[in-house]
Amino acid sequence: MHCPDPERSRAAMALARRLEEEREPVTLLLTAAARQRDAPRNMLQWPPFLDSRAATQEFLGRWRPDLLMWIRGPVQPSLLSETARAGIPALLVDAEAETAMLAGGGWRPGARRAAFEVFNRVMAIDGTAAARLRRIGVAPDRIEITGRLDDSRPLPGCHERDRADLAHAIGPRPVWLVAGAVEDELTAIAIAQRQASKRAHRLLLILAPASETAAPRIARSLREQGFIVAERGEGAEPDEATEIYVADGPGEIGLWYRLAPMTMMGGTLSGLPCRDPMEPAALGSAVLHGPQQARYADGYARLTAAAACRGVRGPADLGFAVEALLSPDRAALLARAAWGVATAGAEATNRAIDLIHTALERVA
């Protein structure tokens, strides 16, 4: 797997994890701009090398790959020509219009056409990319439009027994979650809970702190503000009187996403570290967020473009947003749109896996 574009390293990791789950997993070698810390066990990593005949021949002689999968990025003519000379099949996935560029820039028509002729199949993200590839000489029957690869991280899990027990304890009460709650935002969260509780007096807030050490301090602070608080860390479950249920850190976040129809992303009001919004989105929880989301800006932008999340500016706005999403229909509409965004790349990833297996069967 060659992934020259750092922005698509997550897609490479997601594809690798899917391949690891196969009954007959393949051994992968990734060449990318940066080493991936979350690489699966079936993946080796090697730094990128010069686009030269000598460097490519040395690499191919050392590793003897059965297949090249190129993920987006500009193409490297020498690498591709030597791959073809060695009789190694090649696939291009996640191809954008800009993928038609040669590495280092330039638009030499002859070189580009020769480079792209190496690819047995090309998966384009959209019609614009497919048209650009056809114009530079890629045979139309080698191109298919599949959309982008899935770039999601593994979803946080939970124990089903715990989920069932807590769902029974909560019953039909309306619930919202603050995921990755930070102490700097506690005042805003408390104001929002009081405001939204005026509309739904049985409203339960599940508050999952960003760190385990913060949980006791958060619980104590909320009690001092007059809330009835139960703590997961003390073995308690929420009862009818509980207004806020404080989890014992981020370890069970998958459990809380599955219990709450809406999730406020902690840290996004204050600019402190926050969690990936695709986590609740993929698990069916409507996403609320503040104006500070630099770490996951791309994910928030995708959700916003699909009208699949709701932004808030401050405490009062958060309270109104929670009130609005107490309507099951509104929350479900937002959650459904978010789920569509979070799982949009699954079909393309499935197709890439099919092409990988087909290519490997032919060289077996």
Automatic annotation (TrEMBL):
Q: What does this protein do?
A: Involved in lipopolysaccharide (LPS) biosynthesis. Catalyzes the transfer of 3-deoxy-D-manno-octulosonate (Kdo) residue(s) from CMP-Kdo to lipid IV(A), the tetraacyldisaccharide-1,4'-bisphosphate precursor of lipid A.
This chain belongs to the protein called 3-deoxy-D-manno-octulosonic acid transferase
Q: Which domain of life is it from?
A: Bacteria
Transferase recorded as keyword: yes
Its annotated compartments are: Cell membrane
EC code = 2.4.99.12
- Give the GO cellular component terms, alphabetically: plasma membrane
Major localization listed first in the record, in broad terms: membrane
Q: What class of enzyme is it?
A: transferase
UniProt xrefs under InterPro entries: Glycos_transf_N (IPR007507), Glycos_transf_N_sf (IPR038107), Kdotransferase (IPR039901)
The answer to whether keyword Transferase applies is yes
Lineage, top ranks: Bacteria, Pseudomonadati, Pseudomonadota, Alphaproteobacteria, Rhodobacterales
Gene source species: Limimaricola cinnabarinus LL-001
Give every 3-deoxy-D-manno-octulosonic-acid transferase N-terminal domain span. 10-149
Tell me what reaction this enzyme catalyses.
lipid IVA (E. coli) + CMP-3-deoxy-beta-D-manno-octulosonate = alpha-Kdo-(2->6)-lipid IVA (E. coli) + CMP + H(+)
Q: Which molecular function terms from Gene Ontology are attached?
A: Kdo transferase activity
Output one GO BP term.
Answer: lipid A biosynthetic process
Family of the protein in this entry: Belongs to the glycosyltransferase group 1 family.
Q: Sorted alphabetically, which keywords does the UniProt record give?
A: Cell membrane, Lipopolysaccharide biosynthesis, Membrane, Transferase
Q: In which pathway does it act?
A: Bacterial outer membrane biogenesis; LPS core biosynthesis
